[in-house]
Amino acid sequence: MKYWLMKSEPDVFSIDQLKKDSTTWWEGVRNYQARNFMMKDMEVGDAVLFYHSNATPPGVAGLAVISKAAEPDQLQFDKKSEYFDPKATKEKPIWYCVQVKYADKFKELVSLQDLRDNDKLKEMLVLAKGSRLSIQPVDKKHFDIVKKMGGL
Fold it and tell me: What are the sequence ranges of the domains in the chain?
């Protein structure tokens, strides 16, 4: 099993929306490194820290699980979508996404500042200067610490 942090803006898609829907395709990712994590590295059963970005405050809101392996992101073919890519074809898709399933919501948000304040987490990628990647691997030890900080 691998561990991940996946960012979503809560006004676009929050942990509460995931709980309501149960699952979602993690569509609209248009960064090659993040896409490659989904295509090549994520497996069904991998655990996810669900991170609310561009929020006040930003932070980890809960947990999710990868429930289906990567498939072509259907939004790349939809001319009405902001994620449409004219270079993508059904025969040669460019963008992929995994399905994510709700696991649990933290009793309290673990804010970005809370993460920074914990010396045991200083190596987390989300804390690295200039780190803006929407999907990133997380060490198991860091995942376990954040989960405990969230009250689970």
Answer: 3-149
